[in-house]
C-alpha cells in the first residue's frame, strides 16, 4: 500500500466535460484516501486539434494526451475512465477550429479542397481528428456491457415512458436488396503473416496499388462494395414509395463513426432528394465548393457569397423540392432543420431506438409525430431494426417493468471489422476491378466496380477474436445467462468468424452453459421473445452490432444507454471503463448557458468509477480501493432509490445537486462501514457535515439556477469560469476541500 | 388378374359434383380396361340428409353411403377418391332441406328450438350433417400433401398473379392476448385405458356429468376454454382500434369445421358489432328466434314476419350502426353482403391466404381493396398469419416463379385434436368449475369458468401419432427434404406430443435426414426464409395446422390448393386420395346455370386418380392399373403444358373441354406405350378417333356454352338433365362409349 496507484479520468466534450468540473474534485478527494491519484487526460475535440498542430502552437504547445492514452491502454496497469466525447463531423470540426483561432491558437483553417502540400498535410491531420477518432485508438480490448442490477431494478420500479405501438403502424425500416456491402461481401482468413495489396485495375489494364496491409496469421480480411448507381436508385425508390403511401421519409446512417463511407452515402441521399436543385445548379455549386456530403446546409452556407437575388432563387428552388418530394423527418421542426441538414444530426444507433421507443414515429415539419420509413441503405444491420419494428407491431411496445435484459459482449479490440475500415475505404474514380492480392500474387478477393462505388476492406485480428470468445464464456458463466453469438450464415465474414468461434469455444469448459450461434434475425427475435417473458440473453456480437445493440436494448429497458456498465477488459491486462454511450448531449450545454441548469446524469461515471476502484483494489491488493468501490455502489443505489438524479425542471436538483447527494451517501457509507477503521474515521466528519448542511448546500446549488451564465467557450470553455459555474456551493466546496 | 378390383369415387356437391357427370364416364371406361370397377358413393349434403331420415322416406329410402365409406376406410383394400363436399352451415342445411322437400322427400324441417322428443331427435340427426361431417368419419389415416412436380413446374412457368406488398401496409392479424383456448390449455397423457368424466360443478356444489369418454392407453387429452367476457372485450377493442386507425375490420373463423365453438364466437362478433341493435331489440329478437350465431342475416330473415314499418325501423337502426362502427370487409360489396352476414362465407383457411395474396387487403363496401385488420380471436394459430404478414411487409409478395414448397404431413386420423372436439364442446350455462376426472376420481384437469365461456376437450390417440411420425420420416426420406415438426413449447398439448414424437422418432433410421422440432412462429419463419430462397421444407403438423397450411402455402405457390396431391394412407392399409382442398366453388355452379360454362378445374381429380391407379396396381399386382396411373400422369402433364385447363372466358375450353383433352392425351399415352400390348391395342382406336375429331369435339363442347341451362336443382340436381348438360358432345360420348 506504499505505492500510490493511478486512475486516469478523461476530459472530453460538452455536457460530460461540464459535469467533470463538478464531479472530479469530489472523486479526487475520496480517491486520495486510498492513495489513489486521479489524473485527467484531455481528449476533447479541441484538445485533439491542438495536439495535432502542437508544432505550430509555439508556447501554447501541449502534450498529445490521446497518444499517451493509447500507450497506456497496452500497459497492464491501465485504469481508464472514458467519458463520451464528440465524434466530429466536418461542420463541428470547423466550429472548434474557429473557436480555437479566436482564443489565439494558431491552428490552420480546414482545407476543403487541399492543393498545396501544406494544405494536404493539414487536411490529413484533421482527418485523424474527424469522426470517432478516440475509441478505435483506446479500445485495446473487447467490450462487456450490461445493466447494473441497481439500474435495472430502478427502471422496473420507475419505468420510463414508452410510446404505444399500433398493429396498424406503417413504420418500417427499408434497405437495399442487392448492390450493397452485404450482397458483395467476400472474406478470407489469412493463413500466414505477410503483406497484401489492395489494387485497382482500370479499363486500360493499368494496376494501381491503393494500399498495402501487413496481415497477421489467422487474421480475417473482408472486402465489399456498395454500388453508387444502385444506392441512388434505391433512394429514389424509397422517395417514390413514401410519396405514394404518405409515410414520412427519414435517413439513418452513422456518418460520425463511418467517417469515410457514410458521408458519401449521406451525400447521395442529399443529391437524390434535392435532385432538381443539384441538376439545375450543378456547375455553380461546384464552383462555390458545395459538398452535399456535409448536408443541404452546405448549400445554405456556400451560397451566402452570392447576390441576394440569386440566393433567393436557389432557396425558392429548394423549397419547391418539398412540394413534390415526400415529407421528411425533422431534427428540429421549429428551426426547420431536416434529416438531411447535416450528417451528424441523425445517427442510426441513437435515432432508431428513439423512433422505436416513440411508437415507431418521428417528427414532421408540423411538429407532429408520424409513421416513418427509416431508410438504412446497408442491409447487413438494418434488418434487425425491421425485425424489432415487426415485433413491436405484433406484441406492442416493450414493457420496462417486466422485460428482461440483453447484455452485450462485443468484438471491438484493435479496430475490428467495419469500424477499422476507414483507411481501406475508397470512392471509385473510374470503372474497373478492385482486388486484394497476397505476397505471392494470388488474388484473394475481387470485385468489378464502377465510378462512384464505395469499396472497402475490413480486418479482424485473431487475438481479439480469441479474447472475445473467452469474454463471452466468462460473462455467460458469471451472469448464469444464455449467450448467443450473432453470426449471420449469409455473410462471408461471419462464416469465417464462425469457424474460429467454434474452434476457440473448445478451449473452455462449457458445462452448464447455454451458448449458441444464430443469424441476426433469428438472434434478435429469440432475444426479444425471451425479453418479453422477463428472460435475459447475452448478445455476443461483432463491432457494429456491439455499438448498435448497446444503445438499442438499453434504451428500451432503461430509457437510456448512459446507465449501462461498460467495461473494456484490455487485452494487456488493464481496464477501461466507458460511461454514457448516449453521446455528449449538446442540448444540455445550451440549457446550462441559457439558464444555468445542467441535466446531464453522471450515473454512468458513478458506475464506472465503482468498478474502476474495485478492479484497482483487486489488482494492486489495495483493500481501501475495494471499499471505496463498494461504498460508491451503495451510494449510487441510494441515490437512485431516493430519486436524487438530475430533475427535469430548472430550480430542482441538477447534475451538481446529484453530485452532492452522491458525495453525501458515499461519505455516509464509508462512515458506516467497519471493514476499514481508517476510512471510517476519515469520512465520518464529512458525512456529518454534509448530512447537517444538506438543506443549505442544496439551496446554494439550486439557487444558482435560472439565469444565463458565461463559460467562455463551447468546444474549449474557460476552466476558471466553468469551474465557478459548476461548483456554486461554497459550503459544499469547503467540505470537500477539507478532506485533503 | 382374374379378380376385378374397385375404386370408390365420391359423389359430392356443387362444382365437383357437376364435373363428375362429365369425368366419371371417361374414368370408368378407361378403368374397365384394367378390370377395375369405379363405383360411386353419394356423400353430398342432400344425400346425407336423406340417409339420416331414410326411415321416413318410404319407397324413397336410400343406403347410407357415408356409413358404407366409414366401414370401407378401415378395410385394407379401400381405394377411395374423395372430392370436396359442402361443410354445411345452418342456412345451407335449410336450403338443402327445402329443395328436397320440393322434390317430394319427406324430410322434416330444421327445428330451430326443439321442444318435443321428436324435434330433439330431428335436431340431433341434423347436427350430424352440419359442418365438416364427412372428413372426420373417413379420415382413418393421417395426411400427406404436396405439390406434384408437374404442377409446381407449371406454376413456375405460368405464375399466377400475386398482389404487391407495401412495406407501409397497415394490415395485420389481431388475436386475444389471454382469455382464449391457447392461454388456458391443459393436457395429460392417459397412462392406462379407462373412462374419464367431464364434470361441471356449480356454485351450489352440485356435480353434473357432461360427458363420459372411453380413453385408450397413451391417448392425449386436452381441455381449455375461451372466456366469453374477454372475447367480447377483445372484439370491442379491435373495433375501437379500427375506428381510430381507419383500418378495415374483418373476422376470420372456421364455423363450418368448428361447428360448435366457432358459430358461438361468430355470434359474439355479431352482437358486439351490432351492439346498439341487439341491446335495443333484445327481447323482440328473442321472441322472433333471431340467432346471431347464424349471422346478421338471421335478423333480416326473422323480422320478415314483422309489420313493414317495424322492419324499416330495425333496418334503419342496423344502418345507423355502420355510421359509428369501422368499415367491415365485404363478401359481396355489390349485394351488400358483409363479413358478418352468415358464418360460412369467410373461412379462415381460405380467407387469410386470399388476403395475403391480395397485398394484405380485402374489399370494402365501395368495392375497393383496403388494408385490413384480420380478427382471429384464438391466438394458437392466428400468430402464424401475423408472422407471414410481417414477412411479406419486409420481403414483399412471394414469387411463384422462384419460391420453394412447403408440403405437409398432418396428424389427422381418428378425429385428432380440435377437429374431433365437437361432442366435447360446451357453452357454459352458469359460473362454476369444469373438470376432467379419471375412473379413480383423480382430477386430471380443471378450469374455473363463467356463464357463456366455451369449454372443450380434445383427444389424440396414440396409434395415429405413431403413424404420423412414421409418415413424416417416410416423406422426408422419399422427398429428400428437411422436415419440421411444428410443436409449440408454449402449448401444453404440444409438449405432450413432443414427448411422443421424440420417442417414436427412435423407431426409425434417421440417418441423413434433417428433422427438427420448432414452435409455430419459428417453424413458419424458417420455412418462409427457406421458401424465398427456393428451398422446400416439409411441415409436420397437428390437425388444424394441416388444414390451414395446406391452403396457405399452396395458394401462395400454385395460386390454389386444389392442385395439391392429397393422400391419406389409411392406417388399416387402404388409401384415400383427396382432391381440391379449396372447397366446392358455389360461384361456378351459378356460372354454369347462367351461361353453361363450368370453370371447375378437375386437375385434383386427375392427380388423385393417377396415384389411386398406381397404388391399386402395386397392392393387387395389377400391372395394367399401374400403366393406367403412369399414363394418366403423362396426360396431366401434357394438359398443363398445352394449357388445356379450363379457361376463364365463356366459349373457350371449360371443365368439359379439359376432360376431353385429358381423355385424348391419356389414350394417346396408352397407345404409345409398349409395356402392355393389350392396352396399346385397346386404346389405339380411341386415340386415333379423338385425335382426328379434336376440332369437331371441341366445337361441340364449346358451342354449347353461352346460354342458361336447367339442371333441375342445386343441392340435388336432376341426374338426367345434369348429365345432358355436362356431356354435350355426341362425337366424344360415342367415342368413349365405344371403349366398352
TrEMBL record, chains A, B:
The entry's keywords: Glyoxylate bypass, Magnesium, Metal-binding, NADP, Oxidoreductase, Tricarboxylic acid cycle
PANTHER family recorded: ISOCITRATE DEHYDROGENASE (NADP(+)), ISOCITRATE DEHYDROGENASE [NADP]
Record note on cofactor: Binds 1 Mg(2+) or Mn(2+) ion per subunit.
Protein source organism: Pseudomonas knackmussii (strain DSM 6978 / CCUG 54928 / LMG 23759 / B13)
Gene Ontology biological-process entries: glyoxylate cycle; tricarboxylic acid cycle
NCBIfam families: monomer_idh
Name of this chain's protein: Isocitrate dehydrogenase [NADP]
Residue sites binding Mg(2+) per the record: 349, 547, 551
Family: Belongs to the monomeric-type IDH family.
Domain of life: Bacteria
Catalytic reactions of this protein: D-threo-isocitrate + NADP(+) = 2-oxoglutarate + CO2 + NADPH
Residues given in the record as substrate binding sites: 132-139
Keyword NADP: yes
SUPFAM superfamilies membership: Isocitrate/Isopropylmalate dehydrogenase-like
Listed EC numbers: 1.1.1.42
Residues given in the record as D-threo-isocitrate binding sites: 145, 546
Keyword presence, Magnesium: yes
Cofactor: Mg(2+); Mn(2+)
GO function terms (MF aspect): isocitrate dehydrogenase (NADP+) activity; metal ion binding
Residues carrying the site annotation Critical for catalysis: 254, 419
Amino acid at each position: 500500500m506504499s505505492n500510490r496507484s493511478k486512475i486516469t479520468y478523461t476530459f472530453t466534450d460538452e455536457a460530460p466535460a461540464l459535469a467533470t468540473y463538478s464531479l472530479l474534485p469530489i472523486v479526487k478527494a475520496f480517491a486520495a484516501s486510498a492513495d489513489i491519484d486521479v489524473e485527467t487526460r484531455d481528449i476533447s475535440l479541441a484538445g485533439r486539434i491542438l495536439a495535432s498542430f502542437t508544432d505550430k502552437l509555439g508556447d501554447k504547445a501541449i502534450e498529445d494526451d490521446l497518444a499517451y492514452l493509447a500507450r497506456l491502454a497496452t500497459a497492464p496497469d491501465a485504469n481508464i475512465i472514458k467519458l463520451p466525447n464528440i465524434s466530429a463531423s466536418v461542420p463541428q470540426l470547423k466550429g472548434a477550429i474557429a473557436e480555437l483561432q479566436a482564443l489565439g491558437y494558431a491552428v490552420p483553417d480546414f482545407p476543403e479542397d487541399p492543393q498545396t502540400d501544406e494544405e494536404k498535410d493539414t487536411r490529413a491531420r484533421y482527418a485523424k481528428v474527424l469522426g470517432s477518432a478516440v475509441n478505435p485508438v483506446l479500445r485495446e480490448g473487447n467490450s462487456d456491457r450490461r445493466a447494473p442490477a441497481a439500474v435495472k431494478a430502478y427502471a422496473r420500479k420507475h419505468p420510463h415512458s414508452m410510446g404505444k405501438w399500433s398493429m396498424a403502424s406503417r413504420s418500417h425500416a427499408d434497405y437495399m436488396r442487392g448492390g450493397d456491402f452485404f450482397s458483395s461481401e467476400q472474406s478470407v482468413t489469412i493463413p500466414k503473416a505477410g503483406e497484401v495489396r489492395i489494387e485497382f485495375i482500370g479499363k486500360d489494364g493499368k494496376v494501381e496499388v491503393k494500399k498495402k496491409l501487413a496481415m497477421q496469421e489467422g487474421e480475417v480480411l473482408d472486402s465489399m462494395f456498395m454500388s453508387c448507381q444502385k444506392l441512388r436508385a434505391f433512394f429514389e425508390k424509397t422517395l417514390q414509395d413514401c410519396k405514394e403511401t404518405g409515410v414520412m421519409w427519414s435517413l439513418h446512417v452513422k456518418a460520425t463513426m463511418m467517417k469515410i463511407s457514410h458521408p458519401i452515402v449521406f451525400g447521395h441521399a442529399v443529391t437524390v432528394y434535392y435532385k432538381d436543385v443539384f441538376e439545375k445548379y450543378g456547375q455553380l455549386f461546384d464552383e462555390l465548393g458545395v459538398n452535399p456530403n456535409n448536408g443541404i446546409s452546405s448549400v445554405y452556407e456556400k451560397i451566402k457569397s452570392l447576390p441576394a437575388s440569386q440566393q433567393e432563387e436557389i432557396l425558392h428552388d429548394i423549397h419547391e423540392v418539398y412540394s413534390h418530394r415526400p415529407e421528411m423527418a425533422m431534427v428540429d421542426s421549429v428551426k426547420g432543420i431536416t434529416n438531411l441538414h447535416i450528417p451528424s444530426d441523425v445517427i442510426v444507433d441513437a435515432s432508431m431506438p428513439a423512433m422505436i421507443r416513440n411508437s415507431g414515429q418521428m417528427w414532421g415539419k408540423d411538429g407532429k409525430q408520424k409513421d416513418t420509413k427509416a431508410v438504412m441503405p446497408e442491409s447487413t444491420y438494418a434488418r434487425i431494426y425491421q425485425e424489432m419494428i415487426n415485433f413491436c407491431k405484433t406484441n406492442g411496445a416493450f414493457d420496462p417493468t417486466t422485460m428482461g435484459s440483453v447484455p452485450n459482449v462485443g468484438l471491438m479490440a484493435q479496430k475490428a471489422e467495419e469500424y477499422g475500415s476507414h483507411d481501406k475505404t475508397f470512392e471509385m474514380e473510374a470503372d474497373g476491378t478492385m482486388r486484394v492480392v497476397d505476397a505471392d500474387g494470388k488474388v484473394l478477393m475481387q470485385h468489378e466496380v464502377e465510378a462512384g462505388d464505395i469499396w472497402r476492406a475490413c480486418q479482424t485480428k485473431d487475438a481479439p477474436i480469441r479474447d472475445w470468445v473467452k469474454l463471452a464464456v466468462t460473462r455467460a458463466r458469471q451472469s448464469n445467462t444464455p449467450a448467443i453469438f450473432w453470426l449471420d450464415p449469409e455473410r462471408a465474414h461471419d462464416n469465417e468468424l464462425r469457424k474460429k468461434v467454434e474452434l476457440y469455444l473448445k478451449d473452455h469448459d462449457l458445462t452448464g452453459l447455454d451458448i449458441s450461434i444464430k443469424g441476426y434475425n433469428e438472434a434478435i427475435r429469440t432475444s426479444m421473445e425471451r425479453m418479453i417473458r422477463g428472460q435475459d440473453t447475452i448478445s455476443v456480437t461483432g463491432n457494429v452490432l456491439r455499438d448498435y445493440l448497446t444503445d438499442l436494448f438499453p434504451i428500451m429497458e432503461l430509457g437510456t444507454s448512459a446507465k449501462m456498465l461498460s467495461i473494456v477488459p484490455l487485452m494487456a491486462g488493464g481496464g477501461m471503463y466507458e460511461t454514457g454511450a448516449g453521446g455528449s448531449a449538446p442540448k444540455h450545454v445550451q440549457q446550462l448557458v441559457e439558464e444555468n441548469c445542467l441535466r446531464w446524469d453522471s450515473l454512468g461515471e458513478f458506475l464506472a468509477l465503482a468498478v474502476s476502484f474495485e478492479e484497482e483494489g483487486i489488482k494492486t491488493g489495495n483493500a481501501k480501493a475495494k471499499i471505496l468501490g463498494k461504498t460508491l455502489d451503495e451510494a449510487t443505489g441510494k441515490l437512485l432509490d431516493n430519486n436524487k438524479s438530475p430533475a427535469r425542471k430548472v430550480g430542482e436538483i441538477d447534475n451538481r445537486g446529484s453530485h452532492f447527494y452522491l458525495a453525501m451517501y458515499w461519505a455516509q457509507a464509508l462512515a458506516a462501514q467497519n471493514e476499514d477503521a481508517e476510512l471510517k474515521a476519515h469520512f465520518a466528519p464529512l458525512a456529518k457535515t454534509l448530512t447537517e448542511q444538506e438543506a443549505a448546500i442544496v439551496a446554494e446549488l439550486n439557487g444558482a439556477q435560472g439565469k444565463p451564465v458565461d463559460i467562455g467557450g463551447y468546444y474549449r470553455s474557460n476552466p476558471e469560469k466553468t469551474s465557478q459555474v459548476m461548483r456554486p456551493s461554497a459550503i459544499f466546496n469547503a467540505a470537500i476541500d477539507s478532506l485533503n
